Predict the structure.
Amino acid sequence: MNQKSKESILRGAQERISPPGSTSLTEYRELMGILRSALDIAEGILVNGGETSDAEAMVIRICKAYGAEEVNVWAIISVVQGTMRMPSGLEVSLSKRIYDSNINLFRLQRMNEIAETYIQDKPDEKQRRALYEAACQAEPFPRAVFLMGGLICTFGWCLYFDGSLLDALCSGLIGFILLFCKDHILQYFNNMATTILLSAFSGMLAAIFLKLGFVVSYSFIAIGIIMLLIPTLQVANGIRELFGGDIVCGTLRILQAMLTTSAIALGFMIAMLVFKFAPNETAMVTPVPKLVLSAGIGVLGYAIVFKASLERFVPIILGGLATAGLWVFLQQTGMGVIANTYWCSIFITGYAMIFSKIVKDSNTNTYLLPILTILLPGKYFYYSTYYIVIFDQQRFWSNVSLMSEMIFGIVFGIITVNLTVHFILEFLERRRKRDILKK
């Protein structure tokens, strides 16, 4: 092909991608780079535990900062698409497929920080790529600390649900092994298969402790493990997105949470069918200091597992201790499970929103997700799973009822706070516009 033919093809390509009156192929490539960088940030937010609304808003802000006249973006848990149009009339579109997600609150924080850098400093494509790749590799602490988070998490929740110190130590050891195996299994199986395998494997490990002669409770060990596996992110984000108007994404997240919990139940069913143990349902009065302290330990474990930044640990732990104290107080009032969960959910959601504003953290999930785990019905989930296996319908429905009450309490608490904040902001905005018109 001679030089004239190459130039002719290049001119033809430029005419096809550029509308009349647009500048050059160089500008088109530059705009594609800007949109690609914005969608990279959106992907980083979604992959690491952020909401779709935050991802969409960040794409719009970045593109507007680089001079876009109109930006349209749509994100769900598996794809993000964006279109930006410049004042010159040049328009570009891109989409990105999102294959996996894994909560990493530290990277989520970094994604928001570098997005602000894009908006304020407007770096070129090479600088944006360097910032993004650095954020994708960022870790708040070594992997060994992350694995210890699994131990701390299951240890704390086993104690919280009336387990003995030996129960908690066994549960903690299994939690450590669980996180160690998870990354290796994910290389060969999808999330659903991995959840089933890990649940069955951890249930069998708990049974092995009994076979070895340890005086431990299979039930309490299993409950601690279940608390580590329950899909907190899908539940919290799904509720907020569903009632925030994003019906498609909210429904997908809730469905994903239901499938994940079903996989957990199936995994433990396999373990229960292999090793037949009767559950320990002995009613115990847990001392208040033990209850509050173990909740703080469990929340700390979740903060490590979710990879929150170290400076966020103190407010997260304080929020967990305060929530556990509130739960104890509400239990003494005799209002019932759903009311207790509802008021605690309101407190947690409000605490997360207020504290994120105080420290100027753009994502409330940093505080909401670890603390919200206190309200997860891991105990009732375990017992309902067991009674499916032995076909005890009466006890099964009793535990399902209690589990449903806690879930409804969480849902309505989050909705109450979000709607209240939304109406307050709407009222203030209308009042501001009215004052401007009067002037």
The first strand starts at residue 70 and ends at 75. The two ends are 69 Å apart (CA to CA). The chain has two domains: 9-137, 143-425.
